[in-house]
Amino acid sequence: MPKDITLDLNLVNSDKFAALHVACSVGNEGVVAFLLMKKSVDPNIVGDNGWVALEFACYNGYPRIVNMLIKEKKTNINYSHPIRGSCLHLAAKNDHFPIC
Q1: Which of 43, 44, 56, 86 falls 20 to 30 Å from 12 in CA-CA distance?
Q2: Mean pLDDT value across residues 72-83
Q3: What distance in Å separates the CA atoms of residue 89 and residue 10, rounded to the nearest whole number?
Q4: What CA–CA distance (Å, rounded) separates 70 from 10?
Q5: Collapsed DSSP state (helix, strand, coil) of residue 75
């Protein structure tokens, strides 16, 4: 087995969701932390229906994941969907006030 295996951590599925989207949507802090340590991971990939990883964390109420994403300098914290609004709006609409 080769020792130097390269994986594309930004690879998306048929819904255009990458591993970071999925980890943020289910609240898997360990996987989010691992992925964010990798310099090649893009936290701003726009998936199906315009969702980004930060939106999933805000929408589902995972404040520690939100903080991890915000600390990642590459994350666009000002992302706003034309219908859903900003990530902050998603958190507030779903009563996830610790994120706000």
Answers
A1: 86
A2: 95
A3: 26
A4: 19
A5: coil
The answer to whether 91 touches 97, Cβ cutoff 8 Å, is yes
Amino acid of residue 50: G
Output the average pLDDT for the chain.
94
CA distance 49 to 2: 38
Whole-number Å distance between alpha carbons of 78 and 54: 10
Q: Reduced to 3 DSSP states, what percent helix, strand and coil does the chain have, rounded to the nearest 5?
A: 45, 5, 50
Please tell me the distance from the alpha carbon of residue 81 to that of residue 8, in angstroms, as a whole number.
Answer: 26
For residue 51, how far is the Cα from the chain centroid?
Answer: 9
Q: How many residues does the chain have?
A: 100
Q: Tell me if 15 sits within 8 A of 46, measured CB to CB.
A: no
Three-state DSSP class for residue 83: coil
Angle, vertex CA 75, rays to CA 40 and CA 33, nearest 5:
60
Instruction: Check: pTM over 0.85? Answer yes or no.
Output: yes
